[in-house]
TrEMBL record:
Cofactor(s) in the UniProt record: FMN
This protein's name: 4-hydroxymandelate oxidase
Binding site for glyoxylate: Y126, R161, H252, R255
Residues at which FMN binds: 76-78, 105, 124, 152, 228, 250, 283-287, 306-307
Protein keywords: Flavoprotein, FMN, Oxidoreductase
Pfam families, sorted: FMN_dh
PROSITE patterns: FMN_HYDROXY_ACID_DH_1, FMN_HYDROXY_ACID_DH_2
Molecular-function annotations in GO: FMN binding; oxidoreductase activity, acting on CH-OH group of donors
Residues at the catalytic site: H252
Family (UniProt): Belongs to the FMN-dependent alpha-hydroxy acid dehydrogenase family.
Length: 358
């Protein structure tokens, strides 16, 4: 019986092909940023309040115009049928039962309309070379009832993920990018010394996306627009000037620029720059309810949770994982003396002295 989100990973590793496990677990380069994300979270300390009379904390949050039960959402993650035959539909249904948003990936292995029919959803947009396909995806997401558009801006090209290169990773025939017209892609064509998924990304994604493209998208997107992949407060400020409704502070889970700042370390300056003007979310490295509390204490509206939910999906434990994360959030709030998220944001945040002995 898993007692933490981390407990799902070894269970998933037992049932997954080694190359699929590496595809999910790995980062780019030497995986410095992948490790840094966790080290940075572990270094953060909170000073709890006492005698607050809190017995039953309320962790609900309102973001992008909707009230949700818990201050986290399912992050956009590609090709979830690699983990389970039902893929995105299984995790989306669990998100619906938990009362949290589910973010549909452009590279989902189930059509976005089917996923949106299961749960209230946001749609994550990758910028493709074909502008007509981008327009079509926006229209499809809006027509399917997605309540926000989350455009990912930190993948001009896929980071060099050495595990995938060494495994010569390619998608199996029964897993495909179902939202794209050409579903049989380079991602299926294994080749010596290459990642087929990276080859597909290089051919499909537009590397030269600019602020002008974001401005264009803002004029054509009738639902709240969120930019994912911001680390520098200057970029966050520019996004607000374009008219976005939210930003996601993210280093793509350590899968893009190896050596990038940890997302949680970048969060504070971004909050200071834009929090009065738009929602600020965080992803990369979130592994517990305490991590959620730390991000909110620094100023995040809420967080996106990724890899731990894929491990849970692989062993049909998505409901259990989300329930566990919710319990951890409530327990951490109670121990910190916080009745609601507004009180969490008033906590004093510090940093541990390293190294910490085990």
């Amino acid at each position: 019986m898993p007692e933490t989100l981390a407990d799902f990973e070894p269970l998933a590793r037992e049932v997954l092909p080694a190359a699929v496990y590496d595809f999910v677990a790995g980062g780019s380069g030497s995986e410095h940023t992948l490790r840094l994300n966790r080290a940075a979270f572990d270094a953060i300390t909170l000073t709890p309040r006492i005698l607050t009379g809190t017995a039953k904390p309320n962790p609900f949050w309102t973001v992008l115009g909707t009230r949700w039960e818990l201050p986290f959402a399912v992050a956009p993650m590609a090709y979830q049928k690699l983990l389970h035959p039902e893929g995105e539909l299984l995790l989306a249904a669990a998100a619906s039962r938990a009362g949290i948003p589910y973010t549909i990936s452009t590279l989902s292995s189930v059509p976005l309309e089917k996923i949106a029919g299961v749960t209230p959803s946001w749609f994550q947009l990758y910028w493709l070379r074909d502008r007509h396909v981008v327009t079509s995806l926006v229209e499809r997401a809006v027509n399917a009832g997605c309540s926000a558009m989350m455009v990912t801006v930190d993948v001009p090209v896929m980071g060099r993920r050495l595990r995938d290169i060494r495994n010569e990773f390619a998608l199996p025939p029964d897993v495909a990018p179902e939202n794209l017209v050409d579903k049989v892609t380079q991602a299926h064509a294994g080749a010596p010394g290459l990642s087929a998924v990276a080859a597909h990304t290089a051919s499909a994604f537009e590397p030269a996306v600019s602020w002008r493209d974001l401005e264009w998208l803002r004029t054509r997107c009738p639902i709240p627009l969120v930019v994912k992949g911001i680390l520098d407060p200057r970029d966050a400020r520019r996004a607000v000037e374009v008219g976005v409704d939210g930003v996601v502070v993210s280093n793509h889970g350590g899968r893009q620029l190896d050596g990038a700042v940890a997302s949680i370390d970048a969060l504070g300056p971004v909050v200071d720059a834009v929090s009065k003007d738009c929602a600020v979310l965080l992803d990369s490295g979130v592994r517990s309810g305490l991590d959620v509390l730390k991000a909110v204490a620094i100023g995040a509206s809420g967080v996106l949770v990724g890899r731990p939910l894929l491990w849970a999906l692989a062993v049909e434990g998505a409901d259990e994982a989300l329930a566990l994360l919710g319990r951890e959030v409530r327990d951490a709030m109670l121990l910190a003396g916080c009745a609601d998220l507004a009180a969490v944001r008033e906590l004093s945040v510090g940093r541990a002295t390293w190294p910490i002995s085990s």
